[in-house]
Design brief:
The chain has about 200 residues and is α+β, with helices and mostly antiparallel strands. The chain has 2 domains: about 140 residues, Roll (Pnp Oxidase, Chain A), CATH 2.30.110; about 40 residues, no CATH class. The protein contains 5 helices and 9 strands. Strands 1, 2, 3, 4, 5, 6, 7, 8 and 9 form a 9-stranded antiparallel β-sheet that branches. The longest helix is centred in the first third of the chain and has 14 residues.
Length: about 200
């Protein structure tokens, strides 16, 4: 068996993730159009899984933050079953990061602060969209947009009470590096009472 292609430079996973994200962000957008994209898997009623693509907004020692409609399918599933899994895949780097852990809502102040940075159209869309519910006619969403455009005309758009952030606090993060012959490098960080324990996995 060959040696791993690079030494492990980090004793905890967040700095390692930040380094990889910076590499991905530095790539030409023709190679990687959206470096902040990730797949989010949730668990729904009856144990039914669901997955969709989102954008990560902030990562630090506390966890991984993203924002959504609390009343949509993902928001409801996260509230009912507050565990989730993420997968970041940066094909040009031949890297993948898998994250698992417990999810909780962010505080109102943090959600307000992020919402204020969004484009006005996205802010209005957060009010107008009844996310994941059936759209009965094609003009319904446009009519709701017009309603909220008129409501907030000439002023700031406040954050809707049904929209805000979640934080995933990981207890398991796996770094995957593609290698020839499918001899992939896999390093697993698992959190325990003493911090992070690091192990290597078979491909």
């Amino acid at each position: 068996m060959t040696e791993l292609s690079e030494p492990r430079p980090f004793e905890e996973p967040f700095a390692r993730f930040a380094s990889l994200l910076s590499e991905a962000e530095a790539l030409d957008r023709d190679l990687l159009p959206e470096p902040f994209a990730f797949a989010l898997a949730t668990l729904g009623e009856g144990g039914r899984p669901a997955v969709r693509m989102l954008l990560i907004k902030r990562v630090d020692q506390q966890g991984f933050r993203f924002f959504t409609n609390y009343e949509g399918r993902k928001g409801q599933e996260l509230s009912s079953h507050p565990m989730a899994a993420m997968c970041f895949h940066w094909q040009p780097l031949e890297r993948q990061v898998r994250v698992e852990g417990v999810v909780s809502r962010l505080g109102a102040a943090e959600s307000d602060a992020y919402f204020a940075t969004r484009p006005r159209g996205s802010q209005l869309g957060a009010w107008a969209s009844m996310q994941s519910r059936e759209l009965h006619d094609e003009g319904a969403f446009e009519r709701r947009l017009a309603e909220f455009e008129a409501r907030f005309q000439g002023g700031d758009v406040p954050r809707p009470p049904h929209w805000g952030g979640f934080i995933l606090v990981p207890d398991r993060i796996e770094f995957w590096h593609n290698r020839p012959n499918r001899w992939h490098e896999r390093e697993l960080y698992q959190r325990d009472a003493d911090g992070w324990r690091v192990s290597r996995l078979y491909p």
